[in-house]
Amino acid sequence: MADIYEQLESRILLLDGGFGTMVQQYGFTEEDYRGERFREWPALLKGCNDLLALTRPEAVREIHVKYLQAGADIIETDSFNANAVSLADYGLEAYAYEMSRAAAAVARSAADEFTARNPQKPRFVAGSMGPTNRTASMSADVANPAAREVTFAQLVEAYTDQARGLLDGGADILLVETIFDTLNAKAALYAIDALAEKLGRTIRVMASGTLADASGRTLSGQTVEAFCTSLSHAQLLSLGLNCAYGAKQLLPYLERLAETAPFRISAHPNAGLPNVMGGYDETPEMFAEDVGEYMRRGLVNIVGGCCGTTPAHIFELSKIACNYAPRPVPAPRRVTTLSGLEPLRIAPETNFVNVGERTNVAGSAKFARLIREGNYEEALSVARAQVDAGAQIVDVCMDDGMIDGVEAMRTFLNLMASEPEIARVPTMIDSSKWEVLAAGLEVTQGKAVVNSISLKEGEAEFLRRAREIHRYGAAAVVMLFDEQGQADTCERKIEVASRAYRLLTDAGFPAEDIIFDPNILAVATGIPEHDGYAKAFIDATRWIKENLPYAKVSGGVSNLSFAFRGNNAVREAMHSAFLYHAIRAGMDMGIVNPQMVKIYSEIEPELLQRVEDVILCRRADAAERLTEYAQQVRTTAETQPQAPDAWRAGTLAERIGHAMLKGVADYIEQDALEGYEALGTPMAVIDTLLMPAMERVGTLFGEGKMFLPQVVKTARVMKRAVAALTPYIEQGGAQTPHNAGKVLIATVKGDVHDIGKNIVAVVMACNGYEIKDLGVMVESQRIVEEAVAWGADCICLSGLITPSLDEMAHVCEELERRALRLPVIIGGATTSNLHTAVKIAPVYSGLVIHSPNASRNSQILAQLLGPDGQLYADKVRADQQALRSDYLRAERTRNLIPIVEVRKTRKGAAPHLPVEPLHPGRMVFPDFDVADAEPYIDWSFFFAAWGLKGRYPEILDHPEKGAEARKVFADAEALLARIRDERLLTLQAAVGIFPARAEGDDIWITDQKGRERRLAMLRNQTRGEENRSLADCIAPQGDWIGCFAVTAGIGLRELCEKFRAEGDDYGAIMAKLLADRLTEAFAEAVHTFVRRQMWGYETGEPLTPQQTVRGQYRGRRMAFGYPASPDHSLKREVFDLLSVEMTTGMKLTENYMIDPGEALCGLMFADADYFSVGTIDTKQLLDYARRRGMEVEEIKKLIPNNI
């Protein structure tokens, strides 16, 4: 059976279209559905399409055949609802396996028939597995949001039965499709994975989600990115989207999926949106035009149709699919990513991730009481408050002797799922009991974190639990315990962590899903053995981050200060100082109470010193000194209580700065208005008092001295201050003439920050501009569509976080695709003139301008829309071009490793054992038989030269290009026969194998008279690449190298002149193209001869010509002028070594071109790989010119693309 992976590598595959759409055309009656077998069935069966595989298999097969005739590569089985959960509506649960098997068998029969007709186009069967008609993560009972109609275990059982039937019937792939609830899909994937393990085989799986409405989320509330993250644990053949939307409406979400997914991408949209009668009006041509856009943008690997599509729609896709390359599967990003309704990436730019700890019955007496009382509604408010305060993950623990942990975990997580504001963040399922962890995993649709597993019960149980966690699609906290107990010293922590990491990664558990907890233990307890606990955690964290790639580190911070309970001033300082040092060492996340963390830079210096003495174990009496200081703090607090509002005595700037830093909003409106009175304008307050305070907070956050919950509080203070000033901003613009222009403003997708955007909107409105504010998290496509529909004169894009910069570029790309030229103004904390010039402006033919603050937007537009607008636009573009040029010059230099360093490390050098040739020396082929070169012709390039893009031989059967391709091919074969039989062209070559050695970046070749000739090579210097040189492929102590020069162009000039004299330009072009192809084929034939006969290192069964053309052999043939050896002048040395001009009809021109032009010249290596030299620096250029014995300017002309 053909390998679908091989097919997917080379082309976009076609899925079939709507099965139900085709069934409707048959007009089946109730009796048709029943057939003889179910004539007396008590329930109505019409509409149960899956039953047709048993009662009307001939009709099912006929539908499959129509799609196969249309060009479908993959057909879906008639089994969408063939599972016990869905079939319960008909009382047919017991027939689920039989229906599934029968559906697969019918499809298998049809697919095999078409594969047999054309083995070059194999057909595949995908076993369709729908979402069922029940949802596992939502309640159907509005009065009981914790209730569920179906459990995870019931879904697993139903999907297992269905998958078994489909596989037994002959399905190649299982397609879990139309996923509206990710938890249902996770149950299907769990079932398939468990079945694969039981059967001892690999099961290929496609998964495809469906979006519910214009929000672009699944029905269960997940964004496209969160949906992808939730299924990322499965080794999917592809991940895609289908149904709900037409192809045009699906495009922006497919783009988002393609940006995120580590898998191949599939798409099978509906034939547009349904009309008022529930039908679909999009013609096959319209459908193909919209789906073609997916291919043009390189988004997809598999395309097909869903509701409303027919074989005609698939036929239209078959006409265009071969014109586009499939989307390359991206390299694994290895970034820890979790999800609730939205994704959470844990990467360096995320800073520290806060895990809320108040929904833990062991850590919060209030929460424990609420759970014991069954007061889940109020318990939910605890979770909500944590998320509102900035918790990025919510830890849920129900471990209490008086609580049924399984039931409480299940109920509370179900309730959390019903609250979008809580459910948007991932969950940490926390328990020491496996059954509680499993209960939590079975009700969580996102990618959660299990807290925790350890080696305490031995390796077998540790790995068993890890496998289950991965099968559920979760990450895992690994506590550093083993059979000996808790790892308390740095050495023990390293020992246990390295062992656990090795066990997990060897078992296939992703390293990025491993979160180590090296155990934060109490310090300064009075027990000397405890003094090093904090330092041991920090040191172990540093070691883990340096030695265990992609793993993360977490911990429960409050344990640290257990010895100082009741003394919050000391505890807060301890937590902040510890986090500061642990984060610098690499700690990624932690369970932290935001109320018990102080801003690091605000800790009183003496307290900070004593705290850090304890944490870093800097002196033997550190614990004693901190205890003494803590007592002083307690005594001072009792005898000299400080007024809580003492900070109000400072200056206005100090008060506003304090309020912003501490997140105190009680007086901010009052202070903002005082600033307005003092400074005269509301914008002066924003620019000179509020923004500097915000910038300081941003700096502290970036340095790890503040944490997200504190930043969230600061943002709330800022919003209240701006709200107090807004009426005065508006009042200032009351007399401004209106109709200055229409401005659409939005915060881009992925960004929820709106303070800056709101200020800009108010200021511009006050300057006479009509404003349309789309809010936050706005898709690029919507921004463009709204701007066009509204008739905007300008688009203003806002964003605070780094990923927003890419989204701004996407908006400009969308404008460019639609040939629009609306000016775009870019603003926000992470934006800059340089980034706008380098990354955004080049993707858009319109004007893109960076604005540094809210006041500048109006000034920019006044100039742009004024009488001298074109002069202003030209100046902006010129300034941006200057910025780009300066940046690119610096970047080229910065990205190059100095040539001295590169040569010293020689990272590109690989171990190489020289192979002595059987027949060294030269050999000439004066008249090589065309028939021996012909099998090596790569016809795909031949057709491409005629503008007929597509793979040979598939292009001969192409529905649109096939007829023309067959005609051209017939003409080519006829002329090739004449060339062969009448000897119209002569194939000549000179080859040789010579002794060689490498010295630095030079290859020294000894000719047949014993003289050494230098072939100077270039070396790649690009940072992050392998920095190879072809000299690396030759051993310094002595080796061998091949040289070649080949042509199939002797006689071509005369042949073409003859055709043209006869008025046959077509024949002349055909002869030229065949000579090109014959030259390449001849080079492959000669290289094969050298490998097997002259050099002799290739033995065994000879490769087929097809394998040879694909390069499936040892060694490489490197032609001059190609990326690894771009200097054409090296042909001179090879021509002299081989005496080419004396023994063949080839000549070398003064510009180092070969006459005839249909020729190749280069080197052969027994061990080498293709690479590109890329850009070189000035030092290598000068050195290369010296080694070549040429002037620098001459070298620059020879290799301009490398300078």
Automatic annotation (TrEMBL):
<feature type="binding site">
    <location>
        <position position="854"/>
    </location>
    <ligand>
        <name>methylcob(III)alamin</name>
    </ligand>
</feature>
<keyword id="KW-0489">Methyltransferase</keyword>
<dbReference type="GO" id="GO:0008270">
    <property type="term" value="F:zinc ion binding"/>
</dbReference>
<dbReference type="InterPro" id="IPR050554">
    <property type="entry name" value="Met_Synthase/Corrinoid"/>
</dbReference>
<dbReference type="Pfam" id="PF02965">
    <property type="entry name" value="Met_synt_B12"/>
</dbReference>
<comment type="function">
    <text>Catalyzes the transfer of a methyl group from methyl-cobalamin to homocysteine, yielding enzyme-bound cob(I)alamin and methionine. Subsequently, remethylates the cofactor using methyltetrahydrofolate.</text>
</comment>
<dbReference type="InterPro" id="IPR011005">
    <property type="entry name" value="Dihydropteroate_synth-like_sf"/>
</dbReference>
<keyword id="KW-0808">Transferase</keyword>
<dbReference type="Pfam" id="PF00809">
    <property type="entry name" value="Pterin_bind"/>
</dbReference>
<keyword id="KW-0862">Zinc</keyword>
<dbReference type="InterPro" id="IPR006158">
    <property type="entry name" value="Cobalamin-bd"/>
</dbReference>
<dbReference type="Pfam" id="PF02607">
    <property type="entry name" value="B12-binding_2"/>
</dbReference>
<dbReference type="InterPro" id="IPR003726">
    <property type="entry name" value="HCY_dom"/>
</dbReference>
<keyword id="KW-0486">Methionine biosynthesis</keyword>
<keyword id="KW-0028">Amino-acid biosynthesis</keyword>
<dbReference type="InterPro" id="IPR037010">
    <property type="entry name" value="VitB12-dep_Met_synth_activ_sf"/>
</dbReference>
<dbReference type="InterPro" id="IPR036589">
    <property type="entry name" value="HCY_dom_sf"/>
</dbReference>
<keyword id="KW-0479">Metal-binding</keyword>
<feature type="binding site">
    <location>
        <begin position="750"/>
        <end position="754"/>
    </location>
    <ligand>
        <name>methylcob(III)alamin</name>
    </ligand>
</feature>
<dbReference type="InterPro" id="IPR000489">
    <property type="entry name" value="Pterin-binding_dom"/>
</dbReference>
<dbReference type="Pfam" id="PF02574">
    <property type="entry name" value="S-methyl_trans"/>
</dbReference>
<dbReference type="Pfam" id="PF02310">
    <property type="entry name" value="B12-binding"/>
</dbReference>
<feature type="binding site">
    <location>
        <position position="798"/>
    </location>
    <ligand>
        <name>methylcob(III)alamin</name>
    </ligand>
</feature>
<dbReference type="GO" id="GO:0005829">
    <property type="term" value="C:cytosol"/>
</dbReference>
<feature type="binding site">
    <location>
        <position position="306"/>
    </location>
    <ligand>
        <name>Zn(2+)</name>
    </ligand>
</feature>
<feature type="domain" description="AdoMet activation">
    <location>
        <begin position="890"/>
        <end position="1203"/>
    </location>
</feature>
<keyword id="KW-0949">S-adenosyl-L-methionine</keyword>
<protein>
    <recommendedName>
        <fullName>Methionine synthase</fullName>
        <ecNumber>2.1.1.13</ecNumber>
    </recommendedName>
</protein>
<dbReference type="InterPro" id="IPR011822">
    <property type="entry name" value="MetH"/>
</dbReference>
<dbReference type="GO" id="GO:0031419">
    <property type="term" value="F:cobalamin binding"/>
</dbReference>
<feature type="binding site">
    <location>
        <begin position="1170"/>
        <end position="1171"/>
    </location>
    <ligand>
        <name>S-adenosyl-L-methionine</name>
    </ligand>
</feature>
<dbReference type="InterPro" id="IPR004223">
    <property type="entry name" value="VitB12-dep_Met_synth_activ_dom"/>
</dbReference>
<dbReference type="GO" id="GO:0050667">
    <property type="term" value="P:homocysteine metabolic process"/>
</dbReference>
<feature type="binding site">
    <location>
        <position position="802"/>
    </location>
    <ligand>
        <name>methylcob(III)alamin</name>
    </ligand>
</feature>
<comment type="pathway">
    <text>Amino-acid biosynthesis; L-methionine biosynthesis via de novo pathway; L-methionine from L-homocysteine (MetH route): step 1/1.</text>
</comment>
<feature type="binding site">
    <location>
        <position position="1117"/>
    </location>
    <ligand>
        <name>S-adenosyl-L-methionine</name>
    </ligand>
</feature>
<keyword id="KW-0677">Repeat</keyword>
<feature type="binding site">
    <location>
        <position position="938"/>
    </location>
    <ligand>
        <name>S-adenosyl-L-methionine</name>
    </ligand>
</feature>
<feature type="domain" description="Pterin-binding">
    <location>
        <begin position="352"/>
        <end position="612"/>
    </location>
</feature>
<feature type="domain" description="B12-binding N-terminal">
    <location>
        <begin position="643"/>
        <end position="737"/>
    </location>
</feature>
<dbReference type="GO" id="GO:0008705">
    <property type="term" value="F:methionine synthase activity"/>
</dbReference>
<dbReference type="GO" id="GO:0046653">
    <property type="term" value="P:tetrahydrofolate metabolic process"/>
</dbReference>
